[in-house]
Structure formats: structure tokens, C-alpha cells
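WARN retry 2 of 3 for item q-0093 after timeout on previous attempt; input resubmitted unchanged.
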Amino acid sequence: MKRLHLLLSAGLGAGILGLASPAVSQDLPALETALQAVLDSVVDAGSTPGVMMRIDAPSMGFSWSGVAGVADTETGAPLMRTNAVRIASNTKTYVAAAILRLWEEGRLGLDDPLSMHLPPEYAEVLEGDGYDLEAITIRHLLTHTSGLYDYADRDLFVEAVLADPTHRWTPEEQIDLAVEWGDPYGAAGEVYRYSDTGYVVLGLVLQSVYGKPLAPSLRELLDFEGLELGSTWLETLEDPPPGASDRAHQYMGELDTYDFDPSLDLYGGGGLVSTADDMAVFMRALFMEGVYRDAATADTMLTTVAGAGAGPDLSGSPMVPGRYRMGVEVRDLGGLEVYMHTGFWGTLAAYFPGQDIAISIAVTQQQSRALFRVFIDALTVLQESIDAAPAEG
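OK item q-0093 returned
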């Protein structure tokens, strides 16, 4: 489903500019205590039933995981760092990375027309709605400039999900809805418009080119085993890894969505479940080493297509041309560059390349500002720890 809109405050970056040159002699126990207090505060305030966070900051000699709250409001079971959550649109980062792995292997080109790789039964549906599959490329799909209408960006879809939360959706149904409910946003490359439909199509392309279903395609191309992502899997399309813990319950207001069928957001636009620990490991591996065979591929991931912004979307989020690259957004937070993605259910994964710091957060209350509060406050705590560290000498 569509990503959560980031309401980052205008002054966020001002307090964290010192992250550009972190020291390595912080009082790490005090830092851990302060970060745990951030998590405890949003739970105590009633902003979310549960929250988990992972920070990996090798330049500070620091790696930390924390949780607060409960995994289930009915039973009161405490949230554990091993409890996975549905990460929704954060899945797009993994799908984009898998496509880029195929590109590394020479099995597809980023400027290949969609007609080369999309199974004909899907191609026929899209062409029937006026989409030019010779003009739409893999690059357009990755950067949300394909013009494909977003089936999930409609009140009608939300209403359909809430009317029957256990309905098992198919990719065919979701593409059919995109065709039925809306027209193309524009010609390929002309308009930047976030589209879950585009990433469902990428999921189909991934399976077609790699020759395996989506779950093993992601797992093998991205080497989940080598990265030790023992709590990350594509829900219901594969078995959980051995020893993986149960999912935490995630909420929309008072509504517990635990038993919603994951197929509402499963086939490339979303679908993965993971922990904060695994998300941070993967996000850092993307831009350091561990995912791509060629370090230059990460640079390709950060390129985009300069379509004109359309929108806003259903949540009111504006479409800002150039911000979205291939499966990640690139933002400037007061002078700090950050690569990041968010997910509908309350997840965030971010990597600060200049500081080599990965941060991932999950809250269990959808559309809660707690997600951004934790992100901002955690960065502030890191800055305060750096400022308090004795100068190296």
C-alpha cells in the first residue's frame, strides 16, 4: 500500500549536523539509556502500543536494539525485538534491489521495454487501458514514472479491504482495479506518481526473468541467508525461517489488523515481514557491501527519472520529483543526506551515507506520529552523545 507520508519538521536537521564527524568515545551505556527512554516515552504517551528500533553506527562503535510496549494489546504480551512486523512499502527497497541484481547479471536492462518481460496475460490488460508497454521501461517502474495508476490510492480499495479483511487478493485483481478505477497518470517518463501497481508489475517481471516465484527470487538474489536475515520473509508465500518469532499485532486506530490477509499488499509493493534488526542490517548492506556484486550498482540505485510531480496522493502527500530513486527516497535533513523508505503500517528504514549510520524503526500504530517522533528524538540523542564525548587527542 502507499507509503506513509513523512511529516519531518523543518528544523530537524539543525540539531544533528554534528553527526558528520562522530567521535568514538561516547558514554555508550548512557546513550543506550537515553534511547530506551525515547521508546518508553511514546508508549507511555499512548502514541503506539509498541515500538522497536535498531541503530548501527560503526563509526561510533555502537550498535543497539531496543523495544517498548506490547505485541498484543489484548493479552499484554511484551513486544520482543524478535517479533516481526509487516513492513509494507519498505518491501519496495528489496524488490528494486533484486531487479538491480538481475541487471548486474545481464538478465535484463533498465531501459528494456516492459513488453519484453511482462507475461502476456498482464500485458494485454494494461495495453487495453492505453498503456504503451513499448515506452514504459524497467527504469520507469523503479522510479514511479511509468504512469501506471495506483490501485491502492483509492478510498474504494480501503473500503473493500475493511469490508472483507480476509479476502485473498491476487495480482490479477489489483492490476484489474488499476485499469478499472483510473486512467494513466501520463506518458512514461512524464509524471512522477507513486504507484503500488508499478511494483506489483515489477514483482511479476522479477518472477518472469528469474524463473522462480517471488519469495525465492528475493531470498536468493538478495542472499538473505548470507546477510543472516533470520526474521525476514514474504508472508504466506513462503514459510517463516526456522526459529522466527510470531508477528506483533499492528493497529489502525482500535482495529487489530493481525488477521487481515496479507495479500492486500503482498506482491511487490509490500509483503515482507521483518524486524527492526533485520531492516537495519539490510539497509546498511545495500550501500556498503553484502547485496550487490558491484559497488557501483548502489550508485545506479540512486538515480531517477525527472518526471513532473503529480498528486497529492490519498494521504495528502505531495509528489516531489527527484526525491524517489529506485526503491529508496533521498532526502536532505538539515544538510545531512539520508536514503530511506517508509511503510504504511508504521515502519521506517534509513541510512546516512556520510556517517555510515543505519536506523530502522517500527511502531505498531498505523499513521501514528510516534514513528517520526522516535526518528527525530533518536537522532537528537545521538547528536547529544557526540557533543558530550571528550575530544580525541
